[in-house]
Amino acid sequence: MITCLNCNNDLILAIDVKNNDFKCKDCSEKYDLLFDKKVLKIINKNHQLSFFINDLSNCDSKFSLKNVYEMYNKGYLDCVKMLNSKYNQSDNIWHLSVNKLKEKISQNINLKINTILNSNTESYICSSCKANYSSNEALFNNFSCIMCLNQLVINNNFEEVEHLKENLILIEHNGFIPF
Ligand SMILES: [Zn+2]
Ligand SMILES: [Zn+2]
């Protein structure tokens, strides 16, 4: 389990995008949140935690409200209603549970692996230049590659699945690392 580097509780960040303020909901220890390409970085002093999230549309650098809404819609973070006594209405507070995020990313990778393993659409690949062919194209070309004339083999997506499994192991061992 990933815990707060200050209070050691399950790390849940309270997110205030407007003020660019991200802190542990239990002890108020401050964290920085930013996107570097598709990697969400959570930084505390000289420690950093990174999550590769490949299904967000807008994640360049600053952590924006757009990111929050999209992450909420995809189930990566939670919205907690808090009563604001001053205005007698409830405010939306955004909570990012780092462990839930990790779990959600693992789930998505598992889903992808299962989709690949269960897909019936057969395709062929050239073992030398890696060109892909549908079964119709392969049949039409007598099961040889039109670029290098090599024999085509059934593409069982073995490499992609192996790559996803490696990602899964990485995400399961993910934690804060010093820099
Ligand atoms: Zn804390
Ligand atoms: Zn080829």
Q: Which structural class do the helices and strands define?
A: alpha+beta
Bound molecules: zinc ion
Largest sheet: 8 strands, antiparallel
Portion of residues in helices?
25-40%
Shape: elongated
For this entry, what is the oligomeric state of its chains?
A: single chain
Specify Rg, calculated over alpha carbons: 22 Å
Strand content: 25-35%
Mean pLDDT: 90
- Uncertain runs are none
Write the H/E string, N to C: EEEEEHEEHEEHEHE
Distance between the termini: 20 Å
Number of beta strands: 11
Strand order of the largest sheet: 6-7-1-2-3-4-5-11
Describe, in plain words, how this protein is organized in 3D.
There is one protein chain. The protein has 179 residues and is α+β, with helices and mostly antiparallel strands. It has a domain at 12-105. The protein has helices at 65-73, 98-118, 135-140, 158-172, and strands at residues 12-16, 21-24, 30-36, 39-44, 47-52, 78-84, 89-97, 123-126, 132-134, 152-155, 177-178. Strands 6-7-1-2-3-4-5-11 form an 8-stranded antiparallel sheet. It is elongated. The two termini are 20 Å apart. The mean pLDDT is 90. The chain binds zinc ion (2 copies).
Feature tags:
8-stranded antiparallel sheet, 179 residues, 4 helices, binds zinc ion, alpha+beta, single chain
Short structural description:
This protein is an alpha+beta fold and 179 residues long.
Q: Can you lay out the helices and strands and say which pair or pack?
A:
Blueprint: E1 12-16, E2 21-24, E3 30-36, E4 39-44, E5 47-52, H1 65-73, E6 78-84, E7 89-97, H2 98-118, E8 123-126, E9 132-134, H3 135-140, E10 152-155, H4 158-172, E11 177-178
Antiparallel strand pairs: 1-2, 1-7, 2-3, 3-4, 4-5, 5-11, 6-7, 8-9, 8-10
Helix pairs in contact: 2-4
The structure holds zinc ion (2 copies).
One zinc ion is lined by residues 4, 6-7, 9, 24, 26-27, 29.
